[in-house]
Amino acid sequence: MRILVNFSEGKLGNPEKCEDLFFCNDHFAMVVDGATNVTGKLIHGKAPGRFAAEIIKETVSTLPPQTNLEEMLEAINKNMQQAYNEYDLIQEIEKERWMAPSASLLVYSSFFHEVWQIGDCQLLMNGKLYKNEKEIDSISANARSMYLEAEMKKGKTIDELLVHDTGWEYIQPLIQQQYYLQNDSANQYGFAVVNGYPIDPSAVKVINVPAETEELILASDGYPLLKSTLEETEECLRKILQEDPLCFRQYKSSKGLIKGNQSFDDRLYLKIRIR
């Protein structure tokens, strides 16, 4: 495999605080998107999402070429549990689930000619976009949108809300509640995520890569629209940030731009040649 394009930028403009990471060797290509910090607490000086992303990246970098999906998840969970024990996090996570570091993950395996999609990272392959959106995110995004519309009716301005997003504060309890539904495939709102605990493999999207495929584009959900070039993808983001910076009308999201930040979320774009 060969990297054609690799670009990432954290919403804060600080690479060390960016929660989107990638890895690529001859056997695996990966994009991992650490979940947004909903507690404000740090683990060993790092946001929980970054903490999770680093463990996942390090684990995937050590896997043998023939590692399958179940074996990859087992290795990641083992290393995450070891880290939880090392930093004495187990009891805190069991008491408050939103303390669990978690991440979305997209991995291409050259051995199996498959892409494994856990969470909302995106794949563009042969002109087709593969997303993994979940209903629970739409509920939170629409609730925030409604709240912000009401705030506007009460006299708040876009500029004021870019400084102090009361819509995010309103849905933060909803976001925290989501953590209790992680990896619960029997629940109507359950969803798969990498968090150090068992994942039902049937809840993971497995995408077959046709033999004639030459290139893959893997990206985090920091890009509202994924295009075949980085320039086009960045332009779509720029347009949304200009027209709907709060991300509550044109592009409804659980979070919007905060004044002084680079975007509403960290973002990563990886284009690779696989043959």
- Measured as a percent range, the helix fraction is 25-40%
Alpha-carbon distance between the two ends: 7 Å
Report strand %: 15-25%
**Element pattern in H and E:** EEEHHHEEEEHHHEEHE
Strand order of the largest sheet: 1-10-9-6-7
Number of beta strands = 10
Keyphrases for this structure?
33% helix, five-stranded antiparallel β-sheet, 7 helices, alpha+beta, single chain
Please give a structural write-up.
The model has no long low-confidence stretch (mean pLDDT 95). Helix 1 crosses helix 2 (69-86) and helix 4 packs antiparallel against helix 6 (166-178). The N and C termini lie close together (7 Å). With 275 residues, the chain is of the alpha+beta class. The strands form two sheets. The protein has a five-stranded antiparallel sheet with strand order 1-10-9-6-7, with no helix packed on it. It contains seven helices and ten strands. Helices cover 33% and strands 20% of the residues. The longest helix has 19 residues, at 135-153.
